[in-house]
Amino acid sequence: VQADWPASDTLYFGKYDSAFVHDEMLRDGVRCSAYAEAIRACAPLLKGGVAIDVGAGSGILSCLCARAGARKVYAIEASAPSAALCRRVVQANGLEGVVEVIEARVEDVRLPEGVLADVIVSEWMGYFLLFESMLDAVLLARDRWLRPGTGRLLPSRSRLFLCPFSDVSWRDHRADLLRDVCGIDFSPLVAKLAAEEASEPAIQGVEPDELLAEPQCVAEFDLATLSRLEAQEQRAALTWKVGTINGGTRPLHGFAGWFDVIFEAPQWSINDLLSAAPLSSRFSSKSESLAAAASKLGAQPDALPLFVASSRAPALALAGRPPVVLSTGPGRPRTCWHQTLFYLPAAGGAASEQEFLELQGGETFTADIDLRRPSESPRYLEVRIKGRMTKEGGGPSSGTVSSGRCVDADGDGDGTDGSAAFGHVWTLV
Q1: Shortest CA distance to 80 belongs to which of 2, 20, 21, 154?
Q2: Residues with catalytic annotation?
Q3: What's the pTM?
Q4: How far apart, in whole angstroms, are the C-alpha atoms of residue 53 and residue 334?
């Protein structure tokens, strides 16, 4: 009953009352295609089996599971308008005999006694992967209903990345525009814009050439083993080495975050192998040996199972099914998640005094990353980045960053640790 929900849940599920939210997600071809491909790869598990869709929304994943051969699909959706939409979509596609829409939170659902899911699918990822905290519901469903041993989670793994960036071209362009608006100089607005950019994360794209180093992995989750307690808070100590910079230096404006999710498909079954075209049909000549054919396919002959060495087997069985990867990173096709930009505050107040750390190639970051959910608002995500930068050889970086929310990296407050300190706290709300 919604009246019994925490306020954070009421606000969260209320966001999905809008048709425009579903429209944006359905128009994301990268997102939809990745899930469709992963579900098709799981057809051997789904055929005659049971699927659970956690946070079913408009019902696309539930319908895809039904089309892939599932005998029963439980579409769990807590938002009343979304659940109603899901039912209409299911009926429009003639799948009401397979897909059952359950209007409730996962925490409140009671499935029939003995139900076990062969596949649990969910599009649980929020901005910067962990915003909205929907992962907890997926892990709860896993613990309650996933079939031991053979059950599959879609997606099965995830990786969260962070990388320093500089968007100096955009900032210079914006400053130039504001210097002359119908002959009026609006340069004082530049400092206010920079301050507000640092007040909360920005959901927008960043170009690969704006990244200052190789991205580093903040966290990697295996959903089969991840505990709900582990998902509550993440900490990482990261190091970046600044790459070559044309023109000498570039300012550090902040950090860009994004994620990948991986859908690991089940391996080829014996039935798949026995129903495939004969392996001998792939030999270049009758005299070519199985070992030679296997070598062409990248497998070691002594590692081949005996049933592969028989007369029938698909070539891909030698290497296994490849995973499906949905990436939201820079340079990849744009998704509805974009990237999450964490802008650092600038030093100085007036536009002419705006100052950021100036980076040179070869300088090194070390930073502590803390991700946690505020206890009073567990659907939110607090991101804390605290660190320092030194040149190769130990000399200090040029420039400083200071503001009311920045921190002294070594904690002694004297600023004499031979490095430029930076730090900030953001909250995704």
Answers
A1: 2
A2: 123, 132
A3: 0.81
A4: 25
